[in-house]
Design goal:
Largest sheet: 6 strands, antiparallel
Shape: elongated
Number of domains: 2
Strand content: 25-35%
Number of strands: 8
Strand order of the largest sheet: 3-4-8-7-6-5
Structural class: alpha+beta
Radius of gyration: 25 Å
Length: about 150
């Protein structure tokens, strides 16, 4: 009877180990699937500025104009699932490559966390990348800023 109890205990431990392993595999797969990558299906022109490409499948969720902000004149916020990776930590390389091809140059020394500053000719923009959204800001020039001050 004693050996039967030990075998039953070992069988129970073995079954629990298998169940725990299966749970871990399913849980890991679920996390992997939730970190899906974004997909860009072509590009359209931003309504804010004709030289800013925007992924065609990104949904415009907010547009704003700022008359009293010292550095921003306008912004657009778009939704595109997984554009920034987990917690917005992974900038979308394909999108930044498209911006580069369109003539935009990133000012890496002005990058602040999720915010990337780019310029093309006399125009400066900032793009803030989050997990499922990105926001484009049209920045005021130094001359615009001086005119607003006085």
């Amino acid at each position: 009877m004693n050996t039967k109890g030990i075998r039953l205990g070992l069988l129970t431990v073995s079954l629990l180990s298998v169940l725990l392993l299966l749970f871990f595999i399913v849980w890991t797969q679920r996390l992997t699937n939730s970190n899906s990558t974004y997909e860009i299906k072509g590009y359209v022109t931003s309504a804010m500025h004709r030289d800013i490409p925007v992924p065609a499948n990104a949904k415009l969720i907010e547009s704003a104009a700022y008359s009293d902000h010292p550095t921003q004149s306008q912004s657009e916020t778009y939704e595109l699932k997984h554009i920034g990776g987990e917690q917005g930590l992974y900038p979308p390389e394909e999108y930044f490559q498209k911006l580069h091809e369109a003539g935009w140059t990133e000012l890496k020394e002005e990058r602040m966390g999720h915010i990337h500053v780019l310029y093309k000719e006399e125009v400066r923009i900032a793009i803030e990348i989050r997990e499922d959204t990105f926001q484009i800001f049209l920045l005021r020039s130094d001359e615009d800023h001086r005119q607003n001050l006085g």
